[in-house]
Amino acid sequence: MLEAPPLARALYRHCEPGQPVPGELYNAVAEVLAWVYSLRRWRKGFGLRPTEPKDLPVPPALDFAQESKE
Predict the structure, then answer these.
(1) Residue 39: enclosing H or E segment and its boundaries?
(2) pTM for this structure?
(3) CA-wise closest residue to 58 among 31, 34, 36
(4) Region (Disordered) spans which residues (predicted)?
(5) Phi-psi region for residue 49, left (φ > 0), alpha (ψ -120 to 50) or beta?
(6) What is the spatial distance between Cα 30 and Cα 46, in angstroms, rounded to a whole number?
(7) Most buried in the list 22, 28, 32, 61, measured by CB within 10 Å?
(8) What would the pLDDT profile of 21-58 be if each residue is shown by its tens digit?
(9) Interatomic CA distance for residues 61 and 15, integer angstroms
(10) Using one digit for the tens of pLDDT, what is the confidence trace for 3-16?
């Protein structure tokens, strides 16, 4: 299981189901999706175990923790 609290909070706060992901979060979400797809391939016996993404980029303007401090 991937734990990425800042990204999860930003998505929860700034996204609605069925709506597009804010452009500022595209890179972080893309990293997570790439990891998931690589993990699936690894579990089927292809390639090396993928490295879990770390320090996923969440801009300060979308970081719920930063908003709470203001």
Answers:
(1) helix 26-43
(2) 0.81
(3) 31
(4) 48-70
(5) beta
(6) 21
(7) 28
(8) 999 999 999 999 999 999 999 999 999 999 999 999 99
(9) 14
(10) 999 999 999 999 99
